[in-house]
Amino acid sequence: MQHCLDEFHSLKNVFIKLKAHEHFNIPKLHALLHYIAAIIALGTPDGYNTESPERLHIDFAKVAYRASNCRDYIKQMALWLQQCEAVWVRECYIDWLDNVLAEDQATEEQTEPLEDEEQGISPKDIVKDFGAHNFILALSLFLKSIMPFDVHCSLVLPNAYDCFDAFKQVSILPPSSPYVKSKQTYQTIRAWPSMSSKGRKKGLPTLFDTAFAIEDLNCYTGGHTLTGLRVAQIQLIFNLPLHLGTHYPQPLAHVEWFTQLGAPDPHTGMSCIWQSMKNK
Predict the structure, then answer these.
(1) Is residue 260 helix, strand or coil?
(2) Distance CA 33, CA 41 (A)
(3) Which of 181, 186, 237, 231 is nearest to 210 (CA)?
(4) How far is it, in rounded angstroms, from Cα 256 to Cα 211?
(5) Measured between alpha carbons, how far is 144 from 34 in angstroms, rounded to an integer?
(6) Digits of tens for pLDDT over the chain (280 positions)?
């Protein structure tokens, strides 16, 4: 192919000498100069066709010409295309503004951030449906860690006969960080097992959101990029029963931790993580 192109360019001046053509500043001929490099870099152009430019020819030429009065049509076509583009830009702006206003309105109306999913789930069902195999152990260690040492003897710990109020989702307002999001907005975290359809209500597949958890608040608010954050998969959102104390009236979450964010990959610039074997 390169040999054919070189031979063509070496002989094309004969058309200019014979006044058969004035110049060769043609886009298609210029595009031929990039074909070889593109094929070497991306592979053979299998399946390429001219449907896309043909469609653009209809929108930018035929429809635009029909919109003119067929006199001095080039200027009219250019003006018509400019007006169509201006309308499209305006529509995009209105759609964006509607989304922003809807988000602000949802934030202002966030009075009850929880949506009740089920009532009274036993630890057995939590393990079966939510996959939280070490739920009782993890919750016991958490309660011990937040209680003073002198009350450990009288502390009531969860057991297999307790029932927990689980929630389908929760909306939280995380602290602002210039490296994550400058504006404070509510973030919705979802966690539910698969749900079968009931009547007209469609069933739902299993969904356990993955989220950034603030592991070190000082590093998160005063650090750089993603310092102080760690990735976790939310397995269960629940409330403590009353007999376990009222130290945490807000919902708690049982999560499965991922490993710490390591150094970015030199090729992709992204950190590689995987599920933590120690789950802590």
Answers:
(1) coil
(2) 14
(3) 231
(4) 11
(5) 67
(6) 888 888 888 888 888 888 888 888 888 888 888 888 888 888 877 766 667 677 777 878 888 899 889 888 899 999 999 999 999 999 888 888 777 766 555 444 343 433 444 467 889 999 988 888 889 999 988 888 877 665 655 678 888 888 898 888 888 887 776 666 666 777 888 888 888 887 777 778 889 999 988 888 777 766 666 778 889 999 999 988 888 876 777 888 999 999 888 777 777 778 888 888 775 5
